[in-house]
Design brief:
The protein is mainly alpha-helical. It is built from four helices and four strands, in the order H-H-H-H-E-E-E-E.
């Protein structure tokens, strides 16, 4: 039902959009991202494994899988399959900054 509606109305919608002049900004990468060298990564890994705790386990997981912080924080035991050695990412968490009545902010 929706597909038919999209096909019927999309040409008129595209004509409507073409009436506007769209200026798409160029993507500028001003971030000075530092990437670990192999030696730095090895030293970090050695330190984290030598001082393993919940925080260091999360850093190791992020380092070797590329998982984002919000995805890492949302992992539950049901997402981990030890038999297949896999982790399923099903959701993410966000930090939300709330301003209180006192004017001070807090993270929730």
């Amino acid at each position: 039902m929706y597909t038919k509606s999209i096909l019927v109305y999309s040409p008129s919608y595209l004509n409507f959009i073409s009436l506007f002049i769209l200026i798409i900004p160029k993507e500028i990468n001003n971030r000075n991202t530092k990437i670990f060298s192999r030696d730095e990564q090895r030293r970090l890994t050695d330190y984290l494994i030598g001082n393993i705790d919940i925080k260091n386990s999360g850093i190791l997981l992020s380092l070797y899988t590329g998982i984002r912080i919000g995805e890492l924080c949302a992992i539950q035991w049901k997402n981990i399959d030890v038999k297949t050695k896999s982790i399923s990412i099903e959701k993410t968490l966000q930090r939300i900054y709330l301003k209180s009545d006192t004017g001070k902010g807090k993270l929730k």
